[in-house]
Amino acid sequence: SSVNSTYLSNHTIRDIWGEDDEERPITPQDNQSLTSLHLSDYRDDVLITSTGWLAFSSALCDTSSVNNTFLSNHTIWEFRLGGAYDQDAILPRDISRYLQLHKQHPRYAARCKILMKHPHLHMLPFLDWGLKFLPLAVAWFERAKPCTTLTIEEANFASTSRMRVLEESREAFESRALTAVYEFIRGMPLEVMKSRQGLAVATAYDEKIARIEEEN
């Protein structure tokens, strides 16, 4: 079944066999309100192959590009497979992690996934926007900063513990943000940087950019 209704929030698929069925792809990334997905058949012993898990993981976090990661599904937080009681025990770790992120920190899910899966954010594609893009980039990093301190609950057979969403220190995050700003300013045409606005921007970031150059 293709889960592509914009307003669908709960979806149950019954009488399936768990083989890789190219005619009935499950595509929750097309739905931005789906929160619960339950797969079952009359035997209650649904099995999903490695190919199926990979497809579902990609639907939750498509790492092929930053834009595709942003467009992935960030709402589904419950996935039930047949009649299994301990759902966390049967889910691959990356999928379980995405679901917990959606459930516990829905506001930051998209930003955190981008930071998790894209260590270096290429700024050159945004040069056509000119200097007006720079404050947008700075604001995005500021809104994404909480990802460095957020934690999610991770359950296993023995116990429940909490793990950090982003395995990166606040200092490393700030360095990444400054590197992105540096890359953007360095790529701007010289005539733009000679303008009054360009000089003001360069001056504002001069000390921070110098620190980045020293580290690199």
Q: What can be said about this structure in brief?
A:
The chain has helices at residues 50-60, 66-70, 87-90, 93-104, 109-117, 133-144, 170-187, 190-193, 196-204, 206-215; strands at 10-13, 36-39, 78-81, 151-155, 160-164. With 216 residues, the protein is mainly α.
What proportion of the residues form beta strands (DSSP E)? 5-15%
Strand order of the largest sheet: 1-2-3
Helix fraction bin: 40-55%
Low-confidence stretches: 1-8, 11-26
SSE order, as H and E?
Answer: EEHHEHHHHEEHHHH
Can you tell me the overall shape? Answer: elongated
Number of helices: 10
| Rg, Cα atoms, Å | 21 Å
Write structural notes for this entry.
- This protein starts with 9 loop residues before the first strand and ends with a helix.
- It is elongated, with a radius of gyration of 21 Å.
- A 3-stranded parallel β-sheet has the order 1-2-3, with no helix packed on it. A two-stranded antiparallel sheet has the order 4-5.
- Helix 1 (50-60) runs parallel beside helix 4 and helix 6 packs antiparallel against helix 7 (170-187).
- Strand 4 and strand 5 form a beta hairpin.
- It is 44% helix and 10% strand.
- Mean pLDDT is 75; it is low at 1-8 and 11-26.
- It has helices at 50-60, 66-70, 87-90, 93-104, 109-117, 133-144, 170-187, 190-193, 196-204, 206-215, and strands at residues 10-13, 36-39, 78-81, 151-155, 160-164.
- It has 216 residues and is mainly alpha-helical.
- The protein is built from 10 helices and 5 strands.
